[in-house]
Amino acid sequence: MLWKLLYQLHVYYFPFNVFRYITFRTIYATVTALFISLLLGPWLIGKLRKYRMAQVIREDGPSSHFKKKGTPTMGGILIILSVLFSTLLWANLADSLVWVAMLALLGYGAIGFWDDYLKVRLGNPKGIGAKRKFFFQLSLALLLGFFLYEKLGIHSTDLLVPFFKRISPHLGLFYIPFALTVIVGSSNAVNLTDGMDGLAIVPATICFATYATISYLVGHARFAQYLKIFYVPGAGEVAVFCGALVGASLGFLWFNSYPAQMFMGDTGSLALGGALGTVALITKHELLLAIVGGIFVVETLSVILQVGYFKLTGGGRVFRMAPIHHHFEQKGLPEPKIIVRFWIISLVFALIALSTLKLR
Fold this sequence. Notes:
The protein is mainly alpha-helical. It contains 14 helices and no strands.
C-alpha cells in the first residue's frame, strides 16, 4: 500500500496529507494502471504471438472478420494485471469490499482465460462449452452474492429504483438469485458486445468511470444523505478500484483500437462484466446498471430476440446478424463508424444514469 507510506510523510511535509483522500488516490490509481498497461502492452503482444495465442474466428461470423485471424487474443491479462497492481498500491486493503471487487475481476478473468486457452489450443470456438462456463460463472456469483448479503447489513436486500425516491423494494432471500442475475448477466453482456475492435472496452470504461463516482457518493455519509441513497461504509474505496479499471481499459484501448493489435478475449470481457456487476451490487445501484450499461443491454436483447424469433418461426430473423453491431455491419456501415457511434450512445446512457441521482 504505497499510499500509506506516502501519507505517513505528512508529519514532515504537510502536502503528503492528500494521500488520505479517496478522490486523489482514485486519480493516481487511474494513471498508474494506464502507465502499467502501456508499458506491458508491447511485451504481452510479443508473448502472445510467440506462443501463438491467436484469435479463433467463428465460421458463422461476418466474412470481413476473417482477415483478423491470427491477431493475438487473451489481452484481458493486461487489464487484470494493471488493475490488481494499481489497486494494491492505492486502495485501503483493510476494506473487504475492495477484495470482493478484485475477486470478481480475477475469478471471471480466470474462467475466461480457461475458455480462451482451450479455444486457441483446440482451435475450437466453443472453448470449455457454454454449460460448463455458465456453471462456473454461477458458482462464483453465488459466493460473491452470499458475502455481500452478509456484509452490506440492513440495506443489503433493498433496491434503489432510478427516478423514484420512496420506492425501495425489499428482496429478502430473493437477493441471492437477483445478485446471480446481475453478475452473470453483466459478465455475459460485455462478452456479447466484444465483437469489434474497441467496441466493448470504451463502454466498459465509461461504466467504471460512472461507478467510480457512485462508489464515492455512497461511501460518503453526507453525500448519501443529501442524495437520499443508501450509505455503504467502505464503498468509497471501491472508487479506487474503478479508477484503476478506467486507466487499464484506456491503456488496453491503445492496442485494441481499430485495427486491433490484440483482442481482450473472454479473459477480458468476462472479467470486466463480472467486476461491473459486482460493483453495482456493492454500491446498491444494481438497477441503474441497466441504464449505465445500456449498450450492453441492447446487445444482449438483440441476441435474445434473434434466437427467440428464430425458434418461434423456424428460421426467421429480426436482424441480419446478432449481436446488433453485426446487423449494422451487414448493412454496409464501416466498422470504425459503428464503434464510435456505439461509444457516443454509451456516453449518453451514462449521463442519463448520473442524472437520476439528483432526479430521485
